[in-house]
Amino acid sequence: MVSGSDWSRMGDGDPSIADDVPPIDTEGAFQEALAGLVIEADANDVDVRGGWSIASGGERLAWDVLITNLSRRSTAVIDEAEFPASAVVEAVAERRGVDSTDLPPIYDAIGPDILEVLHEADPGSDQRVTFKYAGYTITVDADGSIVLDE
To answer: Which residue range forms the structural domain that includes residue 39?
Structure first.
């Protein structure tokens, strides 16, 4: 992987550095290079949000680049033998690194019977429920998938 410092030094006019940096000739190479820059900038407390005007020769190119901090997402799956409400609580506990008994009762957020009905629905359906619990936005799909968003 190309480090962000290799890319950032390219603007210093040192042609030897440009020789060390592989060309960005695929979408994957672009994503890798951009990821390296963003990670390095974030590690140095640089605010990377915004848009930039880029000059190429005498031509001005305008690019809108939007970089935002995405919510952290975790996923889990309800096993056939599990109670869906228990699976949600366990997923949150695992995410937080705590015991499930340290979390508030799930029935304060959603009726466990709603999750049971959803769990018994056709897994191929597009039925889902989204609710807030213990600081997370939780989506449970009929296929048994659980998504936790901060």
So the answer is: 4-63
Same domain, 52 and 99: no
Distances (CA, A) of 23 to 5, 18, 35, 37: 16, 9, 15, 15
Contacts 24+ apart (CB under 8 A), 83-90: 83/112, 83/116, 84/112, 84/115, 84/116, 84/118, 84/119, 84/140, 84/144, 85/110, 85/112, 85/115, 85/116, 87/146, 88/115, 88/133, 88/138, 88/140, 88/146
pLDDT band at 13 (very low <50, low <70, confident <90, very high): very low
Q: What is the mean pLDDT of residues 38-65?
A: 71
Report the run of H or E that residue 52 belongs to, with start and end.
strand 52-56
68 located within any domain: no
pLDDT tens digits, residue range 94-147?
A: 999 999 999 999 999 999 999 999 999 998 898 999 999 999 999 999 999 999
